[in-house]
Amino acid sequence: MYQVIAVVAALAVPSLSAQDTAATIKAAEYALGMIRGPARIDAINTMEYWGTGSTYAFGQAYRPDGAWPAFKVTYHASLSFTASAMRVDITRSNPDGLIQGGGGLPLAAPQRQIQVVAGKFAWNESVPGAGFLPNSTATPAPGAATDRLLQLWSMPFGALKMAERAGANAKMTMEGGVQVITFPLPGDLAGITAKVTLNAKKQVEKVETRTDNPVLGDVVTETTYTDYKDLGEIASDVQFPAHILKKQGGFPVLDLTISKTDPNNPYVVFPVPDNVEKAPQTPPPVKVDTQKVADGVWYLTGGTHHSVAVEFRNYVALVECPLNDERAVAVLDAVKKAIPNKPIRYVVNSHQHFDHLGGLRACVAEGATIVTQAANQPYYEKIWAMPHTLSPDRLAKAPKKPVFETVADKKVITDGTRTLELYRLQGSNHTDTMLLGYLPKERVLIEADVYTPAPPNAAAAPPAKETMNLNDNIKRLNLDVQQITPLHGRLVTIADLRKAVGQ
Amino acid sequence: MVRSLTVAVRYWAMVAALAAAQSPAPRAADGHADLSGVWNGIVANPRAPSTDPLASNLPSRDGSLANYERDNTLLRRADPNRPLYKAQFWEKVRELDQSSNDADPSYGCMPAGVPRIGPPDKIVQTPKEMIFLYVSPGARGWGDQYRVIPIDGRAHTPLQELDGTWKGESIGRWEDDTLVVDTIGFNDTSWLDYGGYFHSENMHVIERIRREGDRLIWQTTVEDPDVLMKPWVMNPRVQRLNPDPKATLPETLPCVEKDLSHLVTKEHH
Q1: pLDDT in tens, A440-499
Q2: What is the pLDDT of residues A369-395, one digit of tens each?
Q3: How many angstroms separate the first and last alpha carbons of chain B?
Q4: What does the DSSP 8-state code read for residue A143?
Q5: What are phi and psi of A188, to 5 degrees?
Q6: Which chain B residue shows the shortest CA-CA distance from A232?
Q7: Helices H / strands E in chain A, number of each
Q8: Is A221 within 8 Å of A247 (Cβ atoms)?
Q9: How many whole angstroms separate alpha carbon B87 and alpha carbon A87?
Q10: How close B67 comes to chain A (CA, Å)?
Q11: pLDDT digits (tens, 9 = 90+) for B5-37
C-alpha cells in the first residue's frame, strides 16, 4: 500500500530538479525582458535587429586548419517565433587587406543576400517580399531550412522558448559554477539537442548545438551572446546581446555588433511564394553524366561539382570525390560502370575546401589511396578521426585507416601506358594547397575553382585574378593544354581560357 | 470537507456561468435575435491580475503601474494576428508603426472609423434599422460616435457616388440570428488598429454580430484588395451586457491634442 502511495506521489509531484529547471527558465526569460503583464506571460513573438560585422565562409579556409575567410557585412534579421520564420538580409563586401580563401572571395561588387525560412519552407529573395512583387525572384532553397530554423531557435529568446516547450525533457546542471539547460528540439529540428548556458544575471550566454557535417562529422555550433542592452529605438526593457559570436568547427562563422533592435515589430511577415510552396522539398536524386573526353579519360558531371576518371592498365585514378557520401558513391558507381573490372586505386583531391573533400571519406572506405597536397594530410587525419555518430557515413560504419600519398610541388602517376601529372598551383589566393591535374599525352588539364567557364554566349566578364594566375601557371609549367575539364562548369578548350583572360 | 464544498460551489458556479453564456438570445418583436442593450459591462477590478480573457492587462510584470505602458505596448504588439499587406507596403506599415505617436490618427483626436471603433457600447434595435452608439476614448478614436444602419433590404449606393468617410456606408441584414453589417465608402485616413495598419478607400468591412446570453460577439473581416494580399479576419471581441436597467453611456471628454509636441522619444503610449 505504502509503495502504491509512493509511486502515485512520485508521479503526481514534479521532481525538485524539474521545478528548478522550469523556474530557472522563467528567471532567464524575465532577465531578458520577455515576461510581461500581470499574468507574467512571454510577450516576445517577433524580433528585428540590425548590425554590422563579419560572416565567414565555413570550410573555405586558405590553409588547412586555418580560420574561415571573412566577408564584411551589414546585417538585418527579422524573426517570428510564432510563425517559426526568419528573414536575414545581408550585404556582403570584401574584407580589408589581403583577401585569401574560397566561398566566393573576392567579390566583384557588394552582394546582397536575403535568406528566408518559414516552417519547412526555405527560399532566397532578390528583394524582401520577392515572389509577390513584379520583377522579383524567390528561389526555393529546401536544403537550407534546417540550418535556418536552427539559427532562429538558437537566438536567446528562441532557445528559452524551446527550453520551456521541452518541459520535463529540459534538464538543468551546473557546469563550472554556471547553470546549463539541455533539451531536445522538436518538430523539424527533432534529433538535435540544444545546450544553453546562462550567465550570472541569468541571461543566455551561449547556445550550443551539434549537427552532422560530411567533413567534420558531429560538428558543434556555438553561439555566444554578450553585452546585453535595451537596443530598441522605442524603449521596451527587452535585453538584447550587443555582440553575437557564432563558431562552427572551432572558428567564427558570424561576428556581429548589434546597433538596433525592434522587439515585436508588428510587421514581420513571411508569406510563402507559390513557387516555393510547390517546389520539391527533397533534393533531386544524385545524377552523374559520363562523357569520354579522350582515350581513357572520362568527365563525370551532372551536378555542381565534377570529377575526372583516368584509366590506367590495371587501375583507375579518380580526380575529385566531392560534396558528401551520396555524391561520392554515385561517382564511384559511375566510374565502375565506365571502366569495369579495375579498382579505383587513387583518388586525387584538388584542395581542402569542404565542398571538394566532402566525399573523400567514402573513397577511403572504398580502399583508395588519397592523393593530396602534403599540407592537407595532418589536417585530414585529424578531422577524419572526429566522431560521426549523428549520421554515420560509409567510413564511420566500416572504419578504415586512410592511406595517403602526398604532393609537395609535383607528383606523377604513371604505368607506362598513361601519365597523370599533378602540380601544386603557385600564387593562388583561393587556397594554398591547390593541385592541377595534367594528362600530357591527351593534353587535358583538370582544375578546380580557379577557372569556372561561363555558359556559352554569356556576356564577357572582366578577367578574374585566379584565372589569370592559372594561365600564368600553365605557361610556367610549359603544359601543352588542348582541353580543360573544370571541376565546375563545362568542358572547354585552352582557347576559351585565353579568351577569358583577355589574350 | 469545507474545501470540497468550496470546490463544488465554484464548479457549479462555473457551469451556471457557461450555461448563461451559451443560452439562446432573447427575441425581438419581429422574431429576430434581440441585440438591444448597453454592452459595456466590465469586470469588477481591472487592475487585478486575472486569468479572465475579458480582463484588462493592467498593471505590469512587477505588480506596479510604473511599467504599465511599456508592458502593455509589448503585449499589444505581440498579437500574431496581423493583416497581410502586399509586399510593396511592408516598409510603409513598419514606418507608420515606428512613427505611431505622430502618424496614428487616434492620437490626433480623430475618430477611429470602422472597423477600429470595434463593437458598439449600446444597440437600439428596430425592425428597419439598427442604431449603434459608441463611447470612444483613446485608441477607438475620440468623441461619442453613432451609426445608423438600415436593415430594410436596400442596396449600397454605388461606391463612386459615395464621399469617403470614417464610418462609410453601412447596410445590415440578418443571417439567421447573426446581424451582418456590410460597409463600404471609406476615406483612407483611419487605421484598422495600432501597428500602422492603414487601408485604402476601397476597403470593404463585414461585421458579424451575434448574441449568446449576456455576451455580444463581434467578428469582423476586412477586405482591401488594393493593399492587402488577402482578407483580414480580426480577433473576435466580446462585450458583456450591462445588467443595470438604469445603465447609461458616460460622456466622452473633449480631446484637445497638446501632448505630441512634448514627446521626445518614439515610445508608444
Answers
A1: 999 999 999 999 999 988 888 889 999 999 999 999 999 999 999 999 999 999 999 999
A2: 999 999 999 999 999 999 999 999 999
A3: 49
A4: G
A5: -65, -15
A6: B267
A7: 12, 28
A8: yes
A9: 14
A10: 9
A11: 333 433 444 444 444 555 678 999 999 999 999
Spatial CB neighbours of A193, under 8 Å, sequence gap ≥ 6 = A182, A183, A184, A185, A209, A210
Does B77 sit within 8 Å of A264, measured CB to CB? yes
Torsion from C-alpha of A137, A138, A144, A148, nearest 10 degrees:
110
d(CA A55, CA A38): 41
Closest CA to B227 of B44, B121, B88: B88
Residue A406 β-bridge partners: A372
For chain A, give the mean pLDDT: 94
State whether B74 and A264 contact (CB < 8 Å).
yes
Number of Cβ atoms within 10 Å of the Cβ of A96: 8
> Tell me, what DSSP letter sits at residue A178?
E
Residue whose C-alpha is closest to residue B39's, from B171, B177, B210, B208:
B210
Q: Which range scores top for mean pLDDT: A226-235, B12-21, B223-232?
A: B223-232
Q: Compute the C-alpha angle B58/B63/B68, nearest 5°.
A: 45
- Residue A444, all three cell numbers: 587535358
3-state secondary structure A54-91: EEECCCCCCCCCCCCCEEEEEEEEEEECCCCEEEEEEE
In the three-class reduction of DSSP (H, G, I as helix; E, B as strand; rest coil), residue A256 is classed as strand
How many C-beta neighbours within 10 Å does residue A339 have? 20
pLDDT at residue B22 in the model: 58
Q: Are B126 and B132 in contact (CB under 8 A)?
A: no
Beta bridge partners of A111: A92
Complex-level ipTM: 0.83
Among A37, A82, A267, select the one facing B71 at the smallest CB separation.
A37
Three-class DSSP category at B114:
coil
Helix (H) or strand (E) holding B97: helix B90-98
Residues of chain B with C-beta less than 8 angstroms from the C-beta of A123: none
Residue A336 main-chain phi, psi, to 5 deg: -65, -30
φ, ψ dihedrals at A91, nearest 5°: -120, 120
Pairing, β B178-184 against β B204-212: antiparallel
Task: Give the residue from B116, B180, B179 showing the smallest Cα distance to B145.
Answer: B116
